[in-house]
Every structure is written in structure tokens, then in C-alpha cells.
Amino acid sequence: MGYSGVRGGMNAILAAERLVRRSRDHAPAEWASTEQIVLRFRLAVDRIMGEAGLYDPPTAADAFRQAEGDVLEAAHLVRAHRSTLPRLAVTEPVDPDEMVVLRRIVPAHRTPDGPQLLGRTTDYTGRLLERPDGAQGDDFARSPAGVESGELARNRDDEQERPAERTPEQRQPRRFYQLLRDLDLVVEHGEPAEDPEPFDITRRAARPPAPRSAVLSSMARAETGALVGLWYRSILGPDGDVHEITLGDTRHGRVPLRVVHPHTGNPVEIGQIRVTEVEGIEDLDGAEEDRTRFDVGYGLCFGHNERKAIAMANLDIAWRRAAPDSPLEQLLLLTTDGLDSGGFLEHLKLPHYVTFRSMVDRKIARRTARNSTEPRVPEPFGEECR
């Protein structure tokens, strides 16, 4: 929980609270309802759920309204609420390959396996403020109830994106990471044969040295701004670590949620949640590293929050490559929860297949020089990528 300092008399505290409630509770119901917040402030709701560690859009929307739009305060409210809830069951592990994709882009490749689905995004829209007609004081234009009901239906249709019109291959396309593995361009880290129980950061604090599951869990629940700030420091290289990074699969979609039935012992699907998943590709250039291959980092978090997942994937690689005396693990575990910072990673979601093609060419050229064989461009990166 956060720290709250209180000074002054009780009368002043109560008066301050009344000012907040007066402005918040007297707002027009059709603008500040829970349903309206879930639909109109979708990304803020997703961010609150991720930073609070509780997937429940209506609860996050209520906290958003109570906090007057302060995402960090709303996450504080939801996390406090979560601590009062009973733990009824533990879900089964989720296979991200079961995701029904709502959005999928591969900035590293123009024609990957499966489609590029832009989905619901303003990544390619000019950053110009749009003001609705009459948006001044009491003259603010509001749609009638009938129009808003139609808008709600259209938004739900957009969210579903008419899955019946798409094939399973389009909804669950082959991973770009698998393409790189087929080309023998990815470093294999030798994961343990047995899948260890993941570190539960909601039960005990993670401290260095920590397993990878603790680091990934901490980043998944971290404050987005703090995680982005730490990623930005890694990109600028103040510690001597300059990374050349390209994004592979960047996905947003639904995954099933399963628990073990208490009587049958079989997994039972109890619902679905939306998650964002990112694979970050890094060009290995260390003296002791295989420069003919790439390293791949991983990030996954609640809701549609690509900034956090991109930072997670890149920091996963940086943490794995960090020197023994590097403070990165301590920073990831202890300083990313509840901080704020700016970002510099939006452009990574734009197409980078030309620069990535040049990186692939360098890999092939180095391998050719080492093996003294004729150069050969793999088919997936052939003429259609030029």
C-alpha cells in the first residue's frame, strides 16, 4: 500500500473530501456511469486492472470515477479492495497460443504468417486534439439515450470483430518467433525440463536474486510509467548497455481462464480475459555472444496495454544479459511499482521490416563468412521483403 501523510484538523480533511464528492457525484449520470467509463476510457480501465492485479472492468471503472481520472490512485483503490476478497481458487496455466486475436502487428516483417490486424488503435492518427461542438460549460453536447444505446451495440460489435468471418488461422496465427526458430536465428536458453511453480508476488515480496517468474510478475503489475522509464534508460545506455531492438509479435486478445473443478478434478473454463503479449527481438553483439542469432524477450499483462508489454519484453532481455553486479534486477523488483515517467517506444509499433531485413542480411553474411559457403537468403525474407 502507498504512504499517506495527514496534517491539519479533521474539519479540514472532511471539507476536502466534500469538495471531491460534490464535483464527482453531481456529474451527469449518463456521462460518468460505470458502463460509459468502461467503453469510453477503455485503455485507462485496462491500465488500472493491470497495476492493481485484479481483472474486473466494472470495479476498475468505479475506481477511475472515484479517483477522478487519477490512474495511480484508482489502482491503489482496487488493490486495497482486492486485499479484502477471498481467494476461492487458483487458475490453471494459460497457453497464449489459445488467444483469439483482436489485434496483431509484426513491425519486423511486412508479410508474416497470418494477417496484420490493426484492430482498435490510433497509432497512425495525427496527435491533434479534437473538440466536440459546444464543448463549453453547460452547453456541452451530449447524445440522446437512443443514440448512446446504438453506440454501445456498435462498440460491442467492434470488440467482437465478427469472429465468424475469420478462419482459425487468421484468429490464431503462427508466431513470428517460430519463424525465426525455423531459420535457426534464435538463441536457445535451455529452459528447465520441469516447469517450476511460479513465484507469487501477491503472497510474498520478491527480492534479488529472484527467479524469472518473479521478475516477469513484478513487471506485469508494475506502474506503466516507471517500467517505461527504466526501459528508456536501458535504450539510452547510461550504464554502457546500448540495445538494438525490433518488435516481433505484438498481440492483444482473449485467453481462456480455467480452474480445477473441486469435485471432478478436471480443468473448467470459468471465463475469458483480455491480455497483451509482446515478443522483443534483440541483435546480439556481445563479445561472448553468438552474433549470428537473436535473443527474444517476453511480456504479457492484463488488458490492452502495449506500452507495458513492450517494456516488459525488452527488459526481460536486458535482465537476462545484465552483468552480475548490475542493479537492474533490484530496480525491476523494487522500484517499478507506483512511479511515473514518460515514454519513447510508440514508434516501435510502426513497420520496421526494412531495417529488420538488413539485420537478417548481416546475420546471414556473418554466418556465410564463418562457414565459407555461398550466401543464401531464407525464403521468408526473400524478394517480397525488399
Q: What Rg do the Cα atoms give?
A: 23 Å
Largest sheet: number of strands, sense, barrel closure: 4 strands, antiparallel
Helix/strand order, N-terminal first: HHHHHHEHHHHHEEEHHH
N-to-C CA distance: 52 Å
Shape: globular
- Output mean pLDDT: 78
What do you see in this structure?
This protein is an alpha+beta fold. Helices cover 39% and strands 12% of the residues. It contains 14 helices and four strands. Strands 1-2-3-4 form a four-stranded antiparallel β-sheet. A hairpin with a 6-residue loop joins strand 2 (245-260) and strand 3 (267-283). Helix 4 (42-52) packs across helix 6 (71-82), helix 5 (57-66) crosses helix 6 and helix 10 runs antiparallel to helix 12 (306-321). It is globular and about 80 Å long. 28% of the residues are buried. Mean pLDDT is 78; it is low at 1-6, 136-161 and 339-344.
Index terms:
4-stranded antiparallel beta sheet, disordered N terminus, 14 helices
Give the gist of this structure.
This protein has helices spanning 10-25, 29-32, 34-40, 42-52, 57-66, 71-82, 145-160, 168-171, 176-182, 212-220, 224-236, 306-321, 328-334, 353-371; strands spanning 100-105, 245-260, 267-283, 294-302. The protein is 39% helix and 12% strand. It is globular and about 80 Å long.
Topology overview:
Elements: H1 10-25, H2 29-32, H3 34-40, H4 42-52, H5 57-66, H6 71-82, E1 100-105, H7 145-160, H8 168-171, H9 176-182, H10 212-220, H11 224-236, E2 245-260, E3 267-283, E4 294-302, H12 306-321, H13 328-334, H14 353-371
